[in-house]
Amino acid sequence: MTVASSPLAFRQLVRAGRFTAQTAGQCPGYTQGNLAIMPGEYADEFLRFARLNPKSCPVIGITKVGDPAVPELGEDIDLRIDVPGYCLFRDGEKVAEVPHLRELWRDDLVGFVIGCSLSFEEALLEGGVPVRHIEQNTTVPMYDTNRPNGTAGRFGGMGVVSMRPMTAAQAIRAVQITSRFPSTHGAPVHLGDPAEIGIADIDAPDYGEAAEIRPGEIPVFWACGVTPQQAIRSARLPFAITHKPGHMLVTDVRNSHLAVF
Amino acid sequence: MTVASSPLAFRQLVRAGRFTAQTAGQCPGYTQGNLAIMPGEYADEFLRFARLNPKSCPVIGITKVGDPAVPELGEDIDLRIDVPGYCLFRDGEKVAEVPHLRELWRDDLVGFVIGCSLSFEEALLEGGVPVRHIEQNTTVPMYDTNRPNGTAGRFGGMGVVSMRPMTAAQAIRAVQITSRFPSTHGAPVHLGDPAEIGIADIDAPDYGEAAEIRPGEIPVFWACGVTPQQAIRSARLPFAITHKPGHMLVTDVRNSHLAVF
Asked: Residues B230, B173: contact at Cβ < 8 Å?
């Protein structure tokens, strides 16, 4: 399953066009990041949005204007070619999926790398908390909520959450584990009754696939990286790029190094 | 409300017989402890019971045999006279409440001081989590559960929990806050459905008073210091002494010094 011996070796496969699949399970122990690229004129506003919504939008890397490097996440990283799939948006509409950005990159673009739940799921498993959608090899269920994001200019909208079912004792343990990782969404934002955060039907996620909630289990909800993606779409930027869902940037940063205590 | 300027000054009032009430609210910021005194022949077994059940029975001080001092909790502490009320048990039955142990103390006795929830409730309030039974000036509701304690010789029985109602977001925050205080019961042991831990009627606590659970709130359950008291009673020791409920030992240890991170 693992195709490379290191994040660098993995990125070299991606650059060569020899890895184009989802990145879950690749380079275990290393942080993977969501990607958001936009013209520099919107970048300061987006950074303020991220600052206002740190649980859903934890920025772990930012490029300089026009420079696709993110040296804090890996000396060689080039956001134009290091992600195995990209989505191109114009005026808030997805217009294409592309394998690289060699032709699309522009000297006014700024790239944001945002922490993702793969990191804390690894910590949950190591901490003895099973993760249903990993066990069942499905996509985590995600839901629109009735909780408004902090708004910065054109970036706003409502929060999106991911859900993992578990027992109450596991939920308590999961709070402890994920609290250590504020840069990958941190502690849950809700647990128990889905209606409290505006979710009408837990079996009908807005994104991803439904996850079975067994007797004695409760749903536990985390802030989700789809939140900034939705904010970017609803801001209707004339030009924006994200990673293709599930196709992340694999960085040189160890998940364990993101732990705050 | 506060009657003394320091734990030492407070203990001097207790020794003089001038303070005989419950200790909640006295010497804010300082750790209060539950008390269990028994003949030394049972002490090693009780310590093993405590070790097996650290969340309900977090030992923060132990005396030498026959010596009522606990210098790690306060240089001057004398367990015979520093607690504002004691219960005397013979063969597991409560036979008297006494104001001091001057006549009852024996040279074979060992005293245990056990961390209590007053410490973490102070941390909850400081952390922005309201505590219903403090707001309403009632006794925290406590319940027998269907969760067996770890057993050491004659000490066993079922776990007892205390309950505080709060919103899910407050419960997540409460897990973070109380996880820092393993020596005062630590993180919750359960949240949500009371039936999962054998509680049939949340409005009918086995000890203390019922607490209102408002719409949007869930019950959150912590291991409780009544657990070791019940274990001592059910072990039917020929002779044992505990503090009178609510009448704790006030120590020189700051609550904040008990935090593990």
From this structure: no
Collect all residues of chain A within an 8 Å Cβ-Cβ radius of residue B168.
190-193, 196
- Distance in angstroms (rounded) separating the CA atoms of residues A200 and A192: 13
Q: State the Cα–Cα distance between residues A18 and B192, nearest whole angstrom.
A: 48
pLDDT the model gives residue A261: 86
Residue B66 DSSP code:
T
Asked if the model's pLDDT at residue B160 lies above 90, the reply is yes
Q: How far are the Cα atoms of B31, B135, B138, B259 from residue B126, in angstroms, in the given order?
A: 15, 14, 20, 14
Q: Is B148 helix (H, G, I), strand (E, B) or coil?
A: strand
* ipTM over 0.85 threshold: yes
Radius of gyration for the alpha carbons in chain A, expressed in angstroms and rounded: 18
A76, with CB counted inside 10 A (0-12, 13-18, 19+), is middle
Closest Cβ opposite residue B175 in set A176, A193, A196 = A176
The per-residue pLDDT for range B44-103, each reduced to its tens digit, is 999 999 999 999 999 999 999 999 999 999 999 999 999 999 999 999 999 999 999 999
d(CA B206, CA A240): 60
Are B176 and A187 a contacting pair at CB < 8 A?
yes
Task: Walk me through the domains of chain B, giving residue ranges and CATH numbers.
Answer: 7-116+235-256 (3.40.1640.10), 118-227 (3.30.2040.10)
Q: Is B129 on the interface with A (CB under 8 A)?
A: no
- Which pLDDT score is estimated for B2? 84
pTM reported for the whole predicted model: 0.93
Average pLDDT over residues B192-212: 97
What is the least distance, in Å, from the CA of B138 to any CA of chain A?
26
Mean pLDDT of A133-161: 96
Chain B environment of A168 (Cβ under 8 Å): 190-193, 196
What are the chain B neighbours of A196 within 8 Å (beta carbons)?
168, 216
Q: Strand, helix or coil at A141?
A: coil
CB contact under 8 A, A193 and B261: no
CA separation, residue A93 to residues A40, A234, A239, B210 (Å): 19, 9, 9, 55
Q: Which two tokens stand for residue B81?
A: 């006279």
Task: List, for residues B100-122, the tens digit of each pLDDT value.
Answer: 999 999 999 999 999 999 989 99
Are the CB atoms for B171 and B131 separated by under 8 Å? no
Angle at B220 between CA B215 and CA B226, to 5 degrees: 135
